[in-house]
Specification:
A two-stranded antiparallel sheet has the order 1-2. The longest helix has 9 residues. By secondary structure, the protein is of the alpha+beta class. It is elongated. A hairpin with a 3-residue loop joins strand 1 and strand 2.
Length: about 100
């Protein structure tokens, strides 16, 4: 898609996007879902730790104690949308 496309009455414009980022803070994502994403190759072990606060041990298992400690750290406010910077109303965390 590019800017400046001209549409006429009756034209259909369909946009497909890669999906949304979810709702709420990524650290609230259930551990099993993050584990499935890592096993499926969708999320790396490093991204699981950094983005979702889920720590894996050397054997590829979730380190529950390390994950709990990491997720317990203070976190900033979560906003609804990100386009180079968050904007929109603050979203309440489930924590």
């Amino acid at each position: 898609m590019s800017d400046g496309n001209v549409l006429c009455r009756g034209d259909v414009l369909r946009l497909s996007t890669s999906g949304g980022g979810g709702w709420g803070h990524p650290f609230d994502r259930p551990l099993e879902r993050v584990r499935r994403d890592v096993v499926g190759g969708i999320v790396s072990v490093a991204a699981a730790r950094e983005d979702y606060g889920v720590v894996f041990d050397e054997g590829g298992m979730i380190d529950a104690a390390a994950t709990e400690a990491l997720r317990a750290r203070p976190r900033g406010p979560v906003r609804m949308f990100h386009r180079g910077g968050y904007f929109g109303p603050t979203v309440e965390s489930r924590r």
